[in-house]
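note to self — DONT lose this again. spent like an hour looking for the file last time. sequence + predicted structure for the chain T wanted, 299 res
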Amino acid sequence: MRLGVLDVGSNTVHLLVVDAHRGGHPWPAHSEKSVIRLAEHLDPKGRVTAEGADALVEAVQTARQAAEDNGVEEMLAFATSALRDAGNGKEVLARVKAETGIVLGVLSGEDEARLTFLAGRRWFGWSAGKLLLLDIGGGSLELAAGGDELPAVAMSLPLGAGRLTRTYGDDLDGLTEHVEKLLTPVVLELKAHGWDRAAATSKTFRSLARLAGAAPSRAGLWAPRTLTREGVHQVLGFIRRMDPTALGELDGVSPRRAHQLVSGAVVAEVAMRQLGVEKLDICPWALREGMILRWLDYA
């Protein structure tokens, strides 16, 4: 079946089209993104502005047309923290449905963590033993751990790279203190469960790994990539002094996300330090693949 996954995140509206069947690898057939930075289109009360809603409707309509052009038979459409946290999220979702015909389901943070964990489990396999998985998004940080396909513990914190950049700007001391405070109780719970292998996914972790010397994207999906705690520390010391425009020109860094990479690096460094993780294996699959895999399990 040709399956479409539409992911409305804090930064992008991303359509992934795959040829999928139960028990098989969900091979990508088409992928396209509209960068709307929805989380930046919020008024002082945390409501999506008219401009933001307009951009979202246009991006979803574009994605719907692309899905039709690519022969999508079934569409899985969902939204994450930007609309989950918006004061007028329900109204915006209703407008999207009325004007595009697309019904966006809103995932809880815990469900994001569970589905991303499923993708990581399927990628690394049972030989990974107990798995710890971290994912830094634009609006939230997801953490999950466990020995099965469903994690024993799945959590979400408002520690996304975009959210923190908007709140703290260049105040890295204040940002670091905030991240440490929110992570401390979560770390204690995760450590109580334990893990054999620590992994991470998301564009933030992939960019940090590339800057720390991991294989470039041209090396292919299967190239092993890791990120060490020392590597994160060195990268953070380097990029915190860079202008976002110059940072966006580096290999592995998206120009559209460069302005929030420093905040993401702070979250990564604090999380690895508090968890006592020296190395993270980078997983190329994440939430969208987790959605596909779960759907195939029950299709």
